[in-house]
Amino acid sequence: MDFFAEQARVRSSSRVLVLLFIAAVLAIVFAVDMVVLLVFGYSRHFGKLLAPHAPPLLMISTVAVLGLISGCAWYRIRSLSEGGKAVAEEVGGQPVPPDTQDPRMRQLRNVIEEVAIASGTPVPDIYFLPDEPGINAFAAGYSASDAAICVTQGCLDHLTRDELQGVIAHEFSHVLNGDMRLNIRLMGLLFGIMALSVIGRQLAWSGSSYSSRDDDGGGRGRGFAFGLLLLAIGSIGHFFGRLIQAAVARSREELADASAVQFTRQTRGIAGALKKIAVLEDGSRLQAASRHEVAHMMFGDVDDFNAWFATHPPLLERIRTLEPWFREHELAQLEAQMHASSPGEQQAETGSDTPAATRVLPPLEWPGQIGAAVLAAQPAAAPQVAAPKDKVLERAATLQQGIPTHLDDAARQPESALALSLALAMSEHAELQEKQKRLIANAFGDDVQSAASKMAAAKASLPPASRMPLVALAFPALKQLPQGRLQTLLETLDVVVSVDPLVGLDDYCLVRLLRMHLLEALKPNRAPIDGRKKLPACRDGVALVCAVVATYGSNDDGAARRAWLLAMNQAFPGIPANWQTLPLDWQTPFDRALDDLDDLMPVAKEIVIQSLLAAIRADGVVTPTETELLRVICASLHCAVPVQADVGAQVEVQTPT
């Protein structure tokens, strides 16, 4: 499957549905106007319309209804301005401590961290719903930088490691496909429409009047009638709003299932989770009072909806899309197996509760009983599962295991994560390091400077390919720092790195990644949205980005030139391109180029990423430097790191021990 093209298709259909949502709001406004005209536009002499009063009445009612819906929607969205964390806590989620000793919680953290490293995103905030026996999960936030992933207790009790991995990969796809921002907007719009019903109910109950009272009580009667009609309009509007909400969610859930397969490279994990939902009594249902408000965010349906209101495709249809050979009698066998074993034994089937530093992951392989005929018939939803050699999540776990224990521990707490970030930015040259230490001491004091210096001395044991994963692991702790301290960290990182007149690539990548994610985390609701630019408008930016990748991935100018030409021909076939040696001060133009490319349309971003892969593959060797650059570029473009079997294999070979 071409995932960028599929994302574009789903986003296009979602835009149509959102336009229908807006049309529903306008229809509500029109209906309220008609009610106002009917109830308040008549004089005491029944049937005689006060024509001069009609236009002002309609104008007032239109402005009032639009103001009410938009104001309530704005208030609701504003209440979620902290991003995923606010949504998770509102539903009742409890944070999973980084130092938890609960084996199931540790497994959850390990799985989420592995998927984050594999996809090139910062580790999200991790929550669980302790009183929810159903199997469900959701991702919330405006971008990857403020994302939170929340799972139910049922996920921890019933899912094996592979199945939990499939569910988490599904939720990460919502992060990477840009679904989370739309989900929060839908929550706001539904809240605004519902407010109309609430006001109508209050008016109907109290018999309040929107006009002067008449001697015969007509004013009170008109207020009561207006309240009833307003309640009816609000309820009908909310009905259609829920229909559109469900349609938007269904279109995106199909892509999320396919993306989960893309991450895990096997279908049995996510399909196994769906099968357990089908056989468990609680299924994927939620008990939370706000379950309908977040229904479109969840992994499975939160209630027994009919087909109109279902936020997900039918369960059996989702399973068959992933496993065309599935037969319903398998569910009876699974139910018998689950009754015969306890949740703890189910976890032990393929799971592991050992710490990340010593864990060896089970192989992710295509089931042996599947023949060539079935593979040939495999639907587009899971196109690359026939490549079992590409074990992207195993590779992510290997990178995480390469992090020394004391640095991994430091990444888990806010203050030590701050010192770790500064340590990673410090130079290996003694003279420059002394200047950097003074700058750190001036900004944060001697204690932070001392801690950063010790970590800087220890980072020599850190494999180069594990630097970015370590930054991803530290991100949740860094977000817990006060806003002023975060701002000081960003400023200090810039100053510390600029001490070296020729900033190294490693330092540049680190600071670029931290700055971007932390700035988005500080103001989640201002995170970038999909761009509209076409590729030809950004040709110079593409040329510079490809030149940086080609230069740092090659041993000489000739090899760099060949790699660059391959990349440019991939992006702009048939258009002549002139190679220019990369200047020494490339960092600032490179920053501008990445910001420019982030404004591209999703399909254009795919072309850029494929062009970069062409440059990386040009010499047949993929180094940790190229991998690190690709991670930073993909993060800057708000794209997932592409899953490429040949890239991953070479990275493992090239990573120093």
From TrEMBL:
PANTHER family: PROTEASE HTPX, PROTEASE HTPX HOMOLOG
The protein's name in its UniProt record: Zn-dependent protease
Peptidase M48 domain: residues covered: 105-324
InterPro entries the UniProt entry points to: HtpX_protease (IPR050083), Peptidase_M48 (IPR001915)
Provenance organism: Dyella acidisoli
Names of the cofactor(s): Zn(2+)
Keywords: Cell membrane, Hydrolase, Membrane, Metal-binding, Metalloprotease, Protease, Transmembrane, Transmembrane helix, Zinc
Transmembrane segments: 16-42, 54-75, 186-204, 224-244
GO terms (BP aspect): proteolysis
CDD domains per UniProt: M48B_Htpx_like
Gene Ontology molecular function, alphabetical: peptidase activity
Pfam hit, one: Peptidase_M48
